[in-house]
TrEMBL record:
This is Xylose transport system permease protein XylH. It is found in: Cell membrane. Residues 1-12 have a biased composition (Polar residues). It is a multi-pass membrane protein. Signal peptide: none annotated. Part of the binding-protein-dependent transport system for D-xylose. Probably responsible for the translocation of the substrate across the membrane. Pfam families: BPD_transp_2. Keywords: Cell inner membrane, Cell membrane, Membrane, Sugar transport, Transmembrane, Transmembrane helix, Transport. Its main location: membrane. It comes from the Bacteria. NCBIfam families: GguB.
Length: 423
């Protein structure tokens, strides 16, 4: 491990040791709680904004936003953007950008159509080969960025044009359809839909069981982390703030479980939601608890210092783009499966939505700051905005204007918060 491993974390400098419950972050009373939340405004601001936006559109749409069917639609319709946002925020943290992910998703979707529909390969083999193709695409772009030294903006801009052209060449400006049922399930299917049908069961018990398990694991992880910090004599958040986080998070999990598994019109757990949950947990762990994750933050914070500390910046950059290629391929498969069609126009503007989700979720323009969970929240903000405005009948041109304004305000908030912290 490098010297930076002990000083750079996803949230900034390591928290100094001190009396448990002491310091500004652990002050008692309302003043201490306010100070704690203010000091973490960058991290929690996006979640507050998401809650406010959800409540606003719930009121403006007459309660249509938070219905069982509409919540499932929000998850399914935005799943591929959320998948891309996971990889994009890692790229941005390292100080890069990727403008090609939409074209790569379209290209992989087209190739999967050729493999499965036209060539007749088994659906699982077609998916596996498509993911491998995504990794190869990531290697191609990572090579130019990491080892040749061409800026990622230029490489991925070229990739956006290159892979869009390859998509059209692969499809011949036609669409490939239909896909096998198993392939389509990844993009729009539900876990065991016939096991607990709504006509004969008061609840979709698989969803309820998954919700209860998620709730138990969430509470246990929060309690374990707090106990671990106390054992190491590190500063802990105020008890009231901890309770707000645990109770609020638990209530959100319980309500989502109700909407997906019990509420009228519920259809169960979307398969892509399970995939997203596994990705979020896995990548959050990598970014916060692995040497590779620490190196990404170190490179984004100060590339020169990272090199001097012994970090192989080229290898890290290369692996980041390989990872982004695989996630773009997965997003392309999910999108193609949902539409049951591979078309030359697929993936249009996906890269802008993924970049917007990352910045709205708290990633810094200069790199070095950001979280996977924040990018997911940013993607949900964009998804709720799209869905809520569509329910209200707002035209697409106005929707684009509002989304652009939200992105601008998010970046402005990041700049303001950084200046406030320095001050």
């Amino acid at each position: 491990m490098s010297a930076l491993d002990n000083t750079v974390t996803p949230q900034g400098p390591a928290t100094p040791k001190g009396p448990v419950g002491g310091g500004a972050g652990s002050g008692s009373g309302a003043g201490g709680i306010v100070q704690f939340f203010t000091s973490r405004l960058r991290e929690i601001g996006i979640f507050i904004a998401l809650i406010v936006i959800v409540l606003l559109f719930q009121a403006l749409t007459g309660g249509r936003l938070l219905t069982a069917g509409n919540v499932s639609n929000i998850i399914v319709q935005n799943s591929y953007i959320l998948i891309l946002a996971i990889g994009m925020v890692m790229i941005i943290i390292a100080g890069h950008i990727d403008l090609s992910v939409g074209s790569v998703a379209a290209f992989v979707g087209a190739v999967s159509g050729v493999l499965i529909v036209q060539w007749g390969l088994p659906w699982w083999l077609g998916i596996l080969l498509s993911l491998v193709l995504g990794a190869v695409v990531g290697m191609w772009q990572g090579f130019w960025v990491a080892y040749i030294g061409i800026p990622a903006f230029i490489v991925t801009l070229a990739g956006m044009l290159l892979f869009r052209g390859l998509t059209q060449m692969t499809l011949g400006n036609t669409q490939i359809t239909p896909f096998p049922t198993e392939y389509r399930q990844l993009g729009g299917g539900y876990l065991f839909p016939d096991l607990f049908p709504a006509s004969s069961s008061p609840a979709e018990w698989i969803t309820v069981a998954l919700g209860v398990l998620t709730l138990v694991l969430f509470v246990a992880s929060q309690v374990r982390q707090r106990a671990k910090r106390a054992a190491l004599e590190l500063q802990n958040e105020p008890t009231a703030a901890f309770l707000v986080k645990v109770i609020g998070g638990g209530a959100l999990i319980a309500y989502l479980t109700y909407l997906l598994g019990v509420a009228p019109g519920s259809r169960g757990t979307p398969i892509v939601l399970v995939v997203l949950a596994l990705l979020i947990i896995g990548y959050s762990t990598v970014m916060s608890r692995s040497v590779f994750g620490r190196h990404i933050y170190a490179i984004g914070g100060n590339r020169t210092a990272a090199k001097l500390s012994g970090i192989n910046t080229r290898r890290v950059d290369f692996m980041l783009f390989v990872n982004m290629g695989v996630l773009a391929a997965l997003a392309g498969i999910v999108f193609t499966g949902r539409l049951n069609s591979a078309g030359p126009g697929a993936g249009n503007l996906f890269e802008l939505d993924a970049i917007a989700a990352s910045f709205i979720g708290g990633a810094a323009v200069q790199g070095g700051v950001g979280r996977v969970v924040g990018a997911i929240a940013g993607g949900l903000v964009m998804g709720v905005l799209n869905n809520g405005m569509s329910l209200m009948g707002i035209s697409t041109d106005v929707q684009q204007f509002i989304k652009g304004l939200v992105l601008l305000l998010a970046v402005a908030f990041d700049v303001w918060n950084k200046n406030r912290t320095r001050g």
